[in-house]
Amino acid sequence: MSNIIWKIKTFDEFTVPELYAVLKARIDVFIIEQDCPYPDLDNYDQKAVHLWAEENGEILAYCRVFNKGIKYKETSIGRVLTTEMARGKSLGKLLIKYAIETIENRFQTSEIRISAQNYLLKFYSEFGFKDTGKKYLEDDILHTEMFKQ
User: Fold this and answer.
1) pLDDT tens digit string along 40-74?
2) Measured at the alpha carbon of residue 88, what is the angle toward residues 110 and 78, in degrees to the nearest 5?
């Protein structure tokens, strides 16, 4: 039996151990694994709704969700990750499903814009995200802007 717990919190609702675990997971995946030094602490965490799965205090999957007008004109999802030990368990799919539900329930919209790493375009298209044609290099990684209506 799995002991996975899903949590959703605003920045001010984090406990210190939760915040530490989330930041550690983001650094492990985006900076260490992807060998990409970038400023993870971007002053947007305070404006985000944070959604994650954990087991025994370890982060398994995580993302940030934003209301309209913060990152884009529309709502958005970002910093999407699945930690190494959790890959292959479909937690990423569950994470995106929950993120979309969170946006629909909290912000009363289904219009979502994301910045997807190119290798994940097919993954996001499974949730109704469409390639906008806007492609760019962000932190030396190819990205594509995607939109879901």
Assistant:
1) 999 999 999 999 999 998 999 999 999 999 999 99
2) 35
| pTM score above 0.90 | yes
Handedness of CA 86, 3, 9, 12 (dihedral sign): negative
Helices (H), 45-119: 91-107
Instruction: Give the closest residue to 132 by CA, choosing from 146, 118, 142.
Output: 146
State phi, psi for 129 to the nearest 5 degrees: -75, 135
For strand 75-82 and strand 112-117, is the pairing parallel, antiparallel, or unpaired? parallel
Task: Collect all residues with Cβ–Cβ distance below 8 Å to 103 and sequence separation of at least 6.
Answer: 65, 75, 77, 109, 110, 112
- The C-alpha atoms of residue 133 and residue 136 are separated, in whole angstroms, by 10
Dist. CA 111–CA 56, nearest whole Å: 34
Q: Exposed e or buried b for every residue in 121-142, given b needs 16+ CB within 10 A? A: eeebeebebeeeeeeeeeeeee
Q: Which of helix, strand or coil describes residue 138?
A: strand
- The answer, yes or no, to whether residue 1 has pLDDT greater than 70, is no
Structure tokens at 91: 């937690």
